[in-house]
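Complex record, two chains
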Amino acid sequence: AALPGPAPADWARAPLEPAVRAVLVAFDEHFSYAKLCQALRYLQRGGPDCLLVGTNRDHRLPLEGGAAIPGTGCLVKAVETAAEREAFIVGKPNRYMFDCVVSEFNIDPARTIMVGDRLDTDILMGNSCGLTTLLTLTGVTTLEDVKGHLESGCPDRQRLVPDYYVDSIADLLPALED
Amino acid sequence: VGGGGMAGCRRLSGAGLREVLGPAQGLLFDCDGVLWAGERAVPGAPELLERLRRSGKATLFVSNNSRRSVAELERRFSRLGFRGVRAEQVFSSALCSALFLRQRLLLGGGGGPGRVFVLGGEGLRGEVRDAGLRLAGEGEQGSGDAEPVRAVLVGYDDQFTFAKLAQACGYLRDPQCLLVATDPDPWHPLSDGQRTPGTGSLTAAVETASGRKALVVGKPNTYMFDCIVERFGVDPSRTLMVGDRLETDILFGKNCGLSTILTLTGVSRLEEAQAYMASDSAAAKDLVPNYYVDSIADLIPGLDE
């Protein structure tokens, strides 16, 4: 519903929908202070009875030429900061989506490969869920990035290291041909 | 007074009041929740300031609110019944952010000051202009002719949008471009008990998108105290900080070597101060005020007739 008036004092007087029990933060190119205001009001009103959920924490969505646009993670962080609470994150690297897949398809992690281009989402989720992980280099990650994590003494960073890598997923074809 | 072990969070009244206020040369006051709440002065607050003035004690004001220019704040003081407060006594995060940027961009030398991209309202933008800096416009794309943007300033911006966030990130790809925030406040109270998001939430979005950490001008950081000292030469050991928010005002006082008084007419509850006092964490101890009062009007009996 349109918010009455141009200022936060007006927005804070707009009626809240009584049935709202969750605030879901996703990618929103029309994100605004007014929406952030409303989100905070619902979270304040509901307290722990109002869920705060974010689809993912990606910081940036890369465009061609090195540019990027802000990712959903920025909007989640704005809401979390204002509300002083942490969102439940559905997306990678959290395991919720993997749990959805497992419940639909009865897969065996030990016999499943996770293929991705991002270490801190795709590979981390795969490693956390006991999958074999395969990094493809056609996306955001370089081999130098992986080396850095591999050679750091840090266990958190080691978890970002894939089991295998390919230059492109097309490199998998020869293994499948008879 | 200041320094040393953990503050005691003692109620200030009776003889204690005179002992603390007597030696003080000056008091720094936060504004929202201390002097006024919304459009209403805290009862007795204007009289307290008047009595301080007559006692010969300096009164200065230090506010994280980056919405208003100092000129607007001066008018607000007057409108709410506070007499004789001059603009030069008022240190807002808008003013101090502009001074900070002037220091770093105009006086820092090297390659021209460039422009500042401001996420904030007209009050903040005006302070930046008054400091001699030029603003980048909204909706501009990078242009070869225009002066480069050398700083992104995040303030309270009730017109914040995804597009402005993206524009800010574009400028911040240049590692030489500063990222500055007026204050860290996550939210502010409204008069009906609801909350409105603060600069801190917008800064978090910009930091996440850009991968950079903002330089935060406002309390609890000490830059605003540096501005005060530069203009007035205040002695921290003879100055009291009075505020309503433990995480900003009281920590600011601690960081600047001031004794602190928490007033309960604003954001923080006494229980929160006591919880910090009981906490094992060293950081929590810095949030405990030396003293507290229900309202700053309670300070009046500590002053001479």
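Note: The interface with chain B takes residues 7-9, 12, 28-34, 36-37, 40-41, 44, 59-60, 66-71, 73-75, 77-84 of chain A (CB under 8 Å).
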